[in-house]
Amino acid sequence: MADIILGIESSCDDTSAAVLRDGVLLSNVIASQQVHKDFGGVVPELASRAHELNIVPVVSEALRKAGVKPEDLTAVAFTRGPGLLGSLLVGTSFAKALSLSLDIPMVMVNHLQGHILANFVRQPDKPVDEPEFPYLCLLVSGGNSQIVRVNSPLEYEILGQTIDDAVGEAFDKCSKMLGLGYPGGPVIDRLAKLGNPDRFHFAKPNIPGLDYSFSGIKTSLLYFVRDEMAKDPDFLEKNKEDLCASFQKTLIDILMGKLIRAAKETKIRQVTIGGGVSANSGLRERIVAEGKKRGWKTFLPEFKFTTDNAAMIAVAGWFRYRAGERTPLDVAPVSRMADY
Ligand code: KG4
Predict the structure, then answer these.
(1) Which residue out of 171, 191, 244 has the highest number of ligand 1 atoms within 8 Å of its CB and is therefore the one to mutate?
(2) How far is the C-alpha of 110 from the C-alpha of 7, rounded, in Å?
């Protein structure tokens, strides 16, 4: 009998449900919340309320699109953490209710593992192209910047991570400084394409090993812009594109420097990226180019699987379900998950 897994994702501001049949994606529905736009960031209380409104219609739509009835489901996979606690509670409670009412098992998933396994979302009529284990994943999002060695779908090792801000935060804070709005990544990505990446230079951190730091570079941008604005009040307006291109290039240089080192040290040649920042076109181009130069096989998740989505949660849950994992009904979500 086929394994039909319902995935549920509600860790931040996207309510998502997906249906997977024997690893193949049948549907992936995402309701993105618009209520946060005026606040310059996600407001946790508003996010939980919006999840509460969205969860039933989103799950119903995912089942309808997949042509699957609730009683056909084999198991329900859900994001336990990390994320906003109120948001996670909605998905977790919904998974429990479904598990109880249908008498099917629940499988909890670490949201970050979902991002790391995004390349394993199989789609009908698309060729399968998946990394072999072990592989390296550059996990880059609004909350994390890590290099992870993935030994199997159940076994992860963090080789390096940020000691302060995540790279997504650097994009978002830079955007705020330049008056470009939230979230910053997509708008900086767009403007960077129009600018000269070698025009301005920002100091890169000198952090030992494979760890990252992104807090200094944003201060460097802040002081630079402040000093230039004192000389010419129109500096920002005149140089927006070059500033974005140069700032983005610096962030990519920092990310790639450590990734290249990790590949050298581990001798692993299968390399992937995951998380919201993996949508960045400059980073995607660079990782492919570096991969060609260095003999890596690189895997880029499709854009729709870079941001939060339940397809990746369903895949991660399916691996765990097949390994025999079951989550008890007294599970509680957690905002932080220290490791894997
Ligand atoms: O993984 P994600 O959707 O949420 C979590 O952090 O869990 O990542 C969101 C982050 C934000 O910081 C956003 O600015 C960044 O991903 N982002 C991008 C791009 N699209 C989203 N950063 C750079 N370039 C992009 N195209």
Answers:
(1) 171
(2) 12
